[in-house]
Design brief:
The structure holds two protein chains of two kinds. By secondary structure, chain A is mostly helical. In chain A, 74% of the residues lie in helices and 0% in strands. Chain A has helices at 7-33, 53-61, 63-94, 99-113, 116-126, 133-141, 154-182, 186-194, 199-228, 231-236, 248-257, 262-288. In chain A, helix 4 packs across helix 7, helix 8 packs antiparallel against helix 9 and helix 9 runs antiparallel to helix 12 (262-288). In chain B, strands 1-2 form a two-stranded antiparallel ribbon. The two termini of chain B are 38 Å apart. In chain B, helix 4 (79-110) runs parallel beside helix 7 (151-175), helix 7 crosses helix 14 (274-286) and helix 10 runs antiparallel to helix 13. The longest helix of chain B is centred in the first third of the chain and has 32 residues, at 15-46. Chain B has two domains: 15-68, no CATH class; 70-286, MetI-like fold (Orthogonal Bundle), CATH 1.10.3720. Chain B has helices at 15-46, 50-53, 67-71, 79-110, 116-125, 131-145, 151-175, 180-187, 192-203, 205-221, 224-229, 237-242, 252-272, 274-286; strands at residues 245-246, 249-250. The chains are: A mainly alpha, B mainly alpha. Chains A and B meet through helix 1, helix 3, helix 4, helix 5 and helix 7 of A and helix 1, helix 4, helix 5, helix 6 and helix 7 of B.
Chain lengths: 290, 287
């Protein structure tokens, strides 16, 4: 007797097959490619097998990779920490139900549904040295910035890239943290307040510990998306000036589609994938820990 | 306890707590303006003549014009065809993603099977692969298939991007539908597909709509794949935007006009469903 195929297999097949094909194919293909030499500018077909040469060169010799590790660290570090801080403060501010806070919650969706490419372009526009409105405002507040060309300075350029990413992501993360805040029972906070605890004490000893799981999720999720970030970097600074805002993700793109060094790009891509897999592992453990 | 009853109604606020609440109001105002002002500035820019864009003296006093809105639809910008491509790609991806995701979400929600959790997590984790990593194999694959610069290639890629999110969101909503009605229908002898179509889908429809809009938004704004896999015929709106960076410099007033065209539909869609949208965005990552 042939066992009947259970219904759930039929239900799952279309989606799973497709996701598996679209995720596995590039992974396997990149892995194979990373052991070969293939300069697309010279030849249309993959070249010879080179073993671990691409990886060796990547980790030992390539100045551009080292140069792109620093921007990656700086970008991801500041981006993640600042997004988390801004989102946490915003969520605490908007926590109390009021007309203005529910209005703000609606507004918080807007940056998230905007095209990151458009956000990058707009930041470029706002920071233009001659007629950028943000540049004007900032030089009014901080005279030291007067006359500086943001995107020609390595640190200011990095600041601009990070700021645009925070503008895109912090509102969404605020909504996530607000969701977390809403699930904390109010009774303990109120009891503590009645017992004379200050706002800060209530936050530090009661709210924050219960918010930790949600903050952990925000932290890891934002790290993943910061490591993946491409659109805003491409539209604001193109990785420049020099390589000062060239993160690992941008480096992979640049190696493949400007230098056409496909094997080498694939090896770099695998390095990035390894980093991301570590992050996603922690993310999934945090989210689905039961 | 005496003297510390600070949050009881009718209690007279001290100067300190009044100052604190004023600070909070100011900060909220600052928050709102940092979101609204840049968007507003872009909208204003779209209706300015170039001479008013390139000078801060006419930041607010300027003669409005519709020229930019017209220019972006003309040669060589042709945003019209890019809008059509964007709509086709996003609708195509959503139209394929939602039925596939609903079936899978139903299976994950209602059946028990081996490796269920692992499979589910692997599907979600596939989204953590950076685009920069997978775009090169896709490029070579679509080149081989002759699908470079076609909407079909973009639909396939975006489908693979949005499917995991859609499964996750819809599963959350199906989980919340009480199972009893389904069970009694099954006991009465109704076939599975009718239970799914006539009981589960209507009950989970807010979630399905939210997932559809979320997927539409992701596809609509997708940048990297469109940048590399299209050249001329299948260009989408985000790529159209960077077309305004020309050898003669950046044409900001046209970018702003294009920016309105790419942003307005997303704002309208997300405001239409903002209640469910916020709920499922937040619940999705906390659950």
């Amino acid at each position: 007797m042939i066992k009947r195929i259970p219904v759930y297999v039929w239900l799952l097949t279309p989606a799973l097959l497709f996701v598996a094909a679209m995720a596995l194919f590039p992974l396997v293909y990149s892995l194979v490619l990373s052991f070969r030499e293939w300069k697309l500018a010279q030849t249309d077909i993959p070249g010879q097998w080179v073993g671990f040469d691409n990886y060796w060169y990547l980790l030992s010799d390539d100045p551009e990779l080292i140069e792109s590790l620093w921007p990656t660290l700086i970008f991801v570090g500041f981006d993640v920490v600042l997004t988390l801080l801004v989102a946490l403060c915003a969520a605490l501010l908007l926590q109390k139900p009021s007309p203005i806070s529910s209005f703000s919650r609606i507004l918080l969706i807007l940056p998230f549904v905007m095209s990151p490419a458009l956000i990058g372009i707009s930041f470029r526009f706002f920071l233009n040295p001659e007629f950028g409105v943000l540049q004007f405002l900032l030089s009014f507040l901080f005279p030291a910035l007067e006359g500086r060309i943001w995107l020609a300075d390595r640190w200011l350029s990095m600041t601009a890239v990070i700021a645009s990413d925070i503008w895109h992501w912090a509102p969404y993360m605020t909504l996530v943290i607000l969701g977390g805040l809403a699930s904390i029972p109010k009774e303990t906070q109120e009891a503590a307040q009645i017992d004379g605890a200050t706002n800060w004490q209530v936050f530090k000893d009661i709210t924050f510990p219960q918010l930790k799981p949600v903050l952990g999720i925000v932290l890891v999720l934002k790290t993943v998306f910061a490591l993946k970030a491409f659109d805003t970097i491409f539209t604001i600074s193109n990785g420049g000036p020099g390589t000062s805002t060239q993160t690992l993700a941008y480096f992979v793109y640049h190696t493949a589609f400007h230098y056409y060094d496909l094997g080498y790009a694939a090896a770099a891509a695998y390095l990035l994938t390894a980093l991301l897999m570590v992050c996603s592992f922690f993310y999934l453990r945090l989210v689905f820990k039961k | 306890m005496t003297g510390a009853v600070t949050s009881i109604p009718g209690y007279q606020p001290t100067l300190k707590s009044r100052l604190w609440s004023m600070t909070q109001q100011t900060l909220i105002l600052l928050l709102i303006s940092s979101i609204v002002l840049p968007i507003l500035w872009m909208c204003i820019t779209a209706f300015k003549w170039p001479r008013d864009v390139y000078s801060l003296n006419s930041a607010f006093w300027f003669e409005p014009t519709l020229t930019n809105m017209v220019t972006v639809f003309q040669h060589p910008w042709n945003l019209g065809s890019k809008i059509i491509n964007s709509i086709a790609v996003a609708s195509g991806a959503v139209a394929l993603a939602i039925p596939m995701a609903t079936l899978a979400a139903y299976a994950f929600s209602r059946y028990e099977f081996r490796f269920k959790k692992t499979i589910f997590l692997t599907v979600i984790a596939s989204q953590f692969l950076p685009g920069a990593v997978v775009v090169l194999p896709y490029f070579l694959m679509f080149k081989e298939l002759g699908l470079l610069d076609t909407r079909s290639a973009l639909i396939l890629i975006n489908l693979s991007i949005v499917l995991p999110y859609a499964i996750w969101m819809i599963k959350g909503f199906i989980d919340a539908v009480p199972i009893e009605i389904e069970e009694s229908a099954l006991v009465d002898g109704a076939p599975r597909w009718r239970v799914l179509l006539e009981i589960v889908v209507p009950a989970a429809i807010p979630g399905i709509i939210t997932a559809a809009i979320f997927s539409f938004t992701l596809t609509w704004n997708e940048f990297l794949f469109a940048l590399i896999l299209t050249k001329q015929d299948a260009l989408t709106l985000p790529i159209g935007l960077i077309g305004f960076r020309t050898d003669r410099g950046d044409l900001w007033e046209l970018m702003a006009a294009g920016g309105i065209l790419i942003t307005a539909p997303m704002f309208i869609l997300s405001l239409m469903v903002h209640r469910q949208f916020i709920g499922s965005l937040t619940a999705g990552s906390v659950r």
